[in-house]
Records
---
Amino acid sequence: MGAGIVALPLSASTLLAADGDYVVNSGFPARGIYFSPVKAISQTYNSVGSYWEVTSGDPNSLMFQVRGSKDGFNFSEWLDVSADNHEGTVQPAQARIYGTLQILDTPYVQFRLDIPEGMTVKLAGLTFIDTNSGPNLAEVPVPALPSGTPNKPYIISRADWGANEALRYNGKNVKWPPEYRTIKAIIVHHSETSNVYNADPSVEVRSIYRYHAITQGWGDIGYNYLIDWKGNIYEGRYGGDDVVAGHAYQYNYGSIGICLIGSFKSVKTTDAQLASLVKLIAWKAASKNLNPNGKTFLVDKTINVVSGHRDVINTSCPGNGAYGMLVDCRSKVAAVLSGAAVSKTYNVDLKSITFTPTTVKLGDTVKVEAVVTNTGTLPIETQDPAPGFIYEEGQTYETLEMIKQNGKFRLAIDFSNNSGISHPYRWGLGKALNPGETATITGYVKMRTVRQVDMFGGVIQEYVKYFEDNVGTTRIRTIMSGPNRTDRAPSRAADPNVRHFNETGHNLGYAFRKYWEENGGLALFGYPLTEEFTEESDTEKGKSFVVQYFQRNRFEFHPEFKGTKNEVLLGLLGVKLTTGRNFPKVPAVPSTDTKVYFEQTGHTLGGIFYTYWKANGSLPIFGYPISEEFKEKNPDDGKTYTVQYFERNRFEHHPENKGTQYEVLLGLLGTALCRTKGWVK
């Protein structure tokens, strides 16, 4: 299998067993051989994947094997599905490791582990994949492959091999959005699946797709192309030409990953596979202006333009049988290209892109600088605006009437969570670039909003395609030009009504101290992040209040309520920080002792969150729920929790603390709001 995906966070991979998986989570010895019980499989399937987790030891050193039986007594040979690092995986302890996919369809299975000393196995499991249903390749018309030219060979489309595009989505969102880079190298892999010469090999392609997309949580297949034993070439990763795939970690960027279906540790590829590999590489080499016998610098090393997986990652892939034929493959590709007419192609290489400074004051500009080289064989033309142009944040090339001109090239910049026009900031290259020429493009964006965004860019040929995108991602913080309210303050603890917190360097006194101490203190509000100061209200336009920020909330002093319980009120930070997010309301349900429906916001509150809400101040402290429970990544620790938003805070469920006072923790919304103001990083 291909290596893990850089374009998609590995945390996206699910750590839960799918329905129908065979999972064992106890009874493993401290070391030595473990045999699982024989498992009768009631479902139909045609391939089996494996996975395991350990709590100590190197998970890659576990030997994992599986075998099948038709009657539960007479078994096949053991099939090795261990993580032999042909993926080059470097996984920490407690991470889930995946074994190689095997073509197997017997009604009984068993697995065996060889556990080395010092390893503690948490669980081991098998997942069963049924991809028998789908288009039959015999029914798909396959035109003859062109001979002796670098023209595009016939490639079986995703639709024709039966890719279920729903697997790429999580609800309405694409799990692994496409991004693009200039192609510099071609990396050859093997799938390490069993050498089963199916009459219809598309079944195996669908199995690999599901194993990558669902079992391993990537959202798509990891290769750009696959070639079966018959020589059929399949479209892999969704996104078309130059899309970044997931086959070689950081070396995904700038390469095409081609998978030869099968295991070639000791056997050679079929003649049909090699012939199709030559035709596929010849087409790509011609269209990308690559020398098949040449060298190229990719990320951090110089490699052959046509390389094996082992040339970039510490792995045995694509197996000795396939790796040994790459010399012959390069020669055959060169022979094809030598008899072809010179290809006329567009191609660019975005060598670098930088954004400076990374922290800017409101009203100042971010400088964008990019270096672009024409690596094609045709001149590339460009358009306005010229380098040096300054955009105001909120403006776009369209609002300034610098509309797209068909086929012209521009530098294109976008930013995270952009809900408007894609890549709104675009600059021309300054001049037309002939093949081999390089240009440096500089542009500016004047920042008008206090916030934090990730900026990135690419090169676009208008109305044609992005040649590169998502390059140079840089976090830009726009801060207030006034004082930093979180700067440490001198202690005022000489005043008996004031308490100084050395942890954050701030004081807490009088009405705010009284409220803090009487309503939960550190557990509910955290440490003070600022001193008291006067700030315009978020919710009452034209009014200002004395406020103080804490890690989990903001206190507001209301003198009009002096002497009452409302003299100090909490800010609506949950509402403030979810502005623009859509939390659909749910139908009303009868309230019970364990679950309540709030018609005021159209949301329910139940379970451990309801218990916590009632026990720690309920409505005055937290407000009404403004969402249902859902999974969300915590921006502070990068982990995913079950959360629920309230008007004044966010609850997080921590099952690892079950039965303690820390099973529910409050979000650091005060810190988050200070971050949006540029006071904290």
---
Amino acid sequence: MTIITNIKRYVIGAPLNPFNPNILRHVSLIALLAWVGLGADGLSSSCYGPEEAYIALGPENTHLALFIAIAMAVTVFIISLGYNQVIELFPSGGGGYKVATQLLGSHIGLISGAALLIDYVLTITVSTASGMDAFFSLLPPHYHHYKFFAETLAILFLLTINLRGMKESIKFLLPIFLGFFVSHVGLILYGIIAHSKGLSPLIPETIAETKKLSSTLGWLPLLALLLHAYSLGSGTYTGLEAVSNNVNRLAEPRVRTGKWTMFYMAISLSFTAAGIILLYLLWQAKPEPEHTLNAVVFHSILGNSILGNTILTLTLLLEAGLLFVAANTGFLGGPSVLANMAVDGWVPNRFRHLSTRLVVQNGVILFGISALALLYWSGGKVTLLVILYSINVFITFSLSLLGLCVYWAKQRKKASPNWIFRLSFSFFAFIITTSILCITLFSKFRSGGWVTVLITCAVIALCLLIKRHYNLVARKLANIDAELSHSITEKNIPAVPTDPSQPTAVILIGKSPGVGMHTLLSVIRLFPRHFKNFIFISVGIVDVGSFTEQNKLQIMRDEVYSSLQYFVDYCHHYGIASEAYVGYGTDIVEELGKLSEQISKQFPNCIFFSSKLIFEHDNWITRLLHNETAIAIQRHIHLQGKEMVIMPMRLGSAKNFH
């Protein structure tokens, strides 16, 4: 084992066996851990969402904040209940992307998926930048030029701990989350009790002031003011979709665990967000330079004593810490969405593969790099990032709820119970989220909203090109499979035993039987009657499509075995000695390497063969979209001192990438 391998194992951890029947329980999240890992994004928004809405009312209309607080709490529960339906209908995960894809069509699903990808990158960037803003606000000004460097280190640190696994990263950040929740609940309750005299007249005074304002402005301008402030606080609801995207990572029974997680998220977020706005009202908080409104109101509650300042400092540090926990949500949810899109062919296949730690490692790395690029582009300006952030999340909200409307409308034909209630609820929630989306996009388009629209459209265009390429390759491979397929109707074909001392051809078999047959026939044609044994090897890959359930792993095993048996039967049918060897794992090159070592010892006079797809316009893009397995395994086999021949297989043109 090399030094690099030792360091990698120390940092990331030892490999996990995906076929261990207890491994799913090891990596799955109970409701408490899911609340911490997936709910931190939503809860952290109470650090800036309520403040944005409160300030948007203006200093003369702060009494209207009571309506905003109630609306926020109600909206959180409405969206949460909507996503409970998503969890019920799609217990294998995928969330908004799967809902839009299966209920509204693949291209609508692409829009939802692209919006989610951008949203999760922004989750990492916004939360990290906000957390460092909060942390550096406690330090002297001459330290502030280190802030960007500290943000970069924070993202790299989160990237590293997520390579170990979802559960491991959550356990590491658990104390910060619980510390934030306990401290803020305590401060909200204490602040309300300490100012309880102002609580009883709050409602009648709010009603009186609202009537007075309506007589001056009119009801329509008043309503517009409320909607404007309400929409600017839309960042409060970000993160609520994370559970539905990761249902497959929850402990059994998944649906029940998912619903409990959503309940914890809804209760904690609605209480915290509405409670903080109530504190603003009771303590008459006013914005101060270089301080958040939360810091101002907490300082008013705690006073200037040594104990009060200590608690305030600890509270603000926990706010900064929770924002880093929220940034971690992007590393948890983003790669899952990316993997689901890879399964459907919208992004390169490599993003559906799992690492030895059963983590979507390529996705984690991509999100880390993208977050760093966005941080560099924006200069870490939270005001700009929040604008980009709040738009995309409501695209997914709206499309998910529209999909539910379509689903329940179709259920009326099946006389499904409660379909009217669920359709009405989904449509009501759809109107709310779409209204917030339209208001936010309209009011913030020139302030930076156009950037997120441009980035999302660019991602969609890129995904369309990738999908077009994969569809072209799939059609050509289907034609090859049809042309080179040989039906074997004979049953109980007598096996022809192999002779390890004779020349042996070892052929790598992939998913396409036509490509495998092309390799076999090419070997027979180029080396007539030379090889006396034909050994077929293949690897069943454990990826996001097969890892979620044990029965899917078994289906994958059966498919690989059936594919290899086809080639063995074909050889036996013509009296050729043949055997098959199979491996399973998360890394095809590593598993093929193990098989090649085993076969080389058993058949010392062997040569390995594989086919490689050759495109008319081969370039770095086609190499990115295809795994280049033959090249990688050839290097591995050459290092063993064995020979491997790659048979070129010209597939056609990839003009869309030329």
